[in-house]
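Hi R.,

Here's the chain you asked about this morning:
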Amino acid sequence: IQGKELLGKGELLIAGKSNEIPVRLTINNTSKLSVSGSIKIKMTDYGITPPTAVFGTIKTGDDITIQFDFTLIKS
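And here is the predicted structure, written out as tokens:
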């Protein structure tokens, strides 16, 4: 089962706005459930204006990538 990829979906809540997103998960360990993955989103999909600096002369893009790693251990 290690290295197995699964496709899931869930709700991502950012700044009070939620969207359903697909997430590809990779199982990294069989003694504990260790899961990792990443998703790409647009800030504007969550009502967030991409940040700027120096009076708007420096701008960021709308796209960001959220990476996650977590481990589930039976208690």
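One quick note: The radius of gyration is 16 Å.

Cheers,
M.
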